């Protein structure tokens, strides 16, 4: 009887133990980067790449932080030849196996009304809210605009894809 109970307990413990890491690893993040503030800038932005390694589609619904009066998901868009940004409505699709990039010139986490400057080389955190994965709090460094690496990363990505296509054509 004692052994039965032990093995049942072990069985459920194993189930819980197995289920937890799978859920936790479905969403993965590239390096989080904040645009460091210069002078008396009152707003800034944060950038990160988000990978969905799960088998289920997810959706980035919202972003929160205690860094600013308002934290919003924003997107940049061309509107009659003028670059404009506006809050994302309904979240950002994150299909299974896909990566979305929050990067300069596109989606970003907007920090409006900063409580304190985002000094370069300092670490700050934000929380991203996903439909299925729930809330994920991530940390990252504030970097001067010239040091932000997201754009470079994207460029090298594009280059890789072009390269692959070249080899496939025959
Ligand atoms: Cu914005």
What can you see in these coordinates?
This protein is α+β, with helices and mostly antiparallel strands. The chain has a domain at 28-145: PCu(A)C copper chaperone (Immunoglobulin-like), CATH 2.60.40.1890. It is built from two helices and eleven strands, in the order H-E-E-E-E-E-E-E-E-E-E-E-H. It has helices spanning 2-24, 150-168; strands spanning 27-29, 32-35, 43-52, 58-64, 68-79, 82-87, 92-94, 99-102, 108-114, 123-130, 134-143. Strands 1, 2, 3, 4, 5, 6, 7, 8, 9, 10 and 11 form an eleven-stranded mixed beta sheet that branches. Strand 5 (68-79) and strand 6 form a beta hairpin. Bound molecules: copper (II) ion (CU). Copper (II) ion is lined by residues 45, 74, 85, 108, 110. The site of copper (II) ion has 5 residues, from strand 9.
The SSE string, one letter per element, is HEEEEEEEEEEEH
Summed over residues and divided by their number, the pLDDT gives a mean of 83
Helical content stands at 10-25%
Based on the structure given, which CATH architecture of the domain at 28-145 is correct?
Sandwich
Distance between the termini: 68 Å
For the CA atoms, what is the radius of gyration?
20 Å
Number of helices: 2
> CATH superfamily membership of the domain at 28-145, which one?
PCu(A)C copper chaperone
């Amino acid at each position: 009887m004692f052994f039965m109970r032990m093995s049942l307990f072990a069985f459920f413990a194993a189930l819980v133990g197995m289920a937890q890491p799978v859920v936790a690893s479905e969403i993965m993040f590239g390096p989080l980067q904040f645009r460091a503030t210069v002078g008396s800038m009152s707003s800034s932005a944060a950038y990160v790449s988000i990978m969905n390694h799960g088998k289920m589609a997810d959706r980035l619904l919202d972003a929160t932080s205690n860094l600013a009066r308002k934290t919003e998901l924003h997107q940049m868009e061309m509107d009659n030849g003028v670059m404009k940004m506006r809050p994302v409505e309904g979240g950002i699709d994150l299909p299974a196996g896909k990566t979305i990039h929050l990067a300069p010139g596109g989606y970003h986490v907007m920090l409006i009304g900063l409580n304190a400057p985002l000094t370069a080389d300092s670490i700050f955190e934000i929380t991203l809210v996903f439909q299925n994965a729930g809330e994920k709090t991530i940390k990252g460094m504030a970097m001067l605009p010239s040091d932000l690496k997201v754009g470079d990363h994207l460029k090298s990505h594009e280059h890789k894809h072009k390269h692959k296509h070249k080899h496939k054509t025959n």
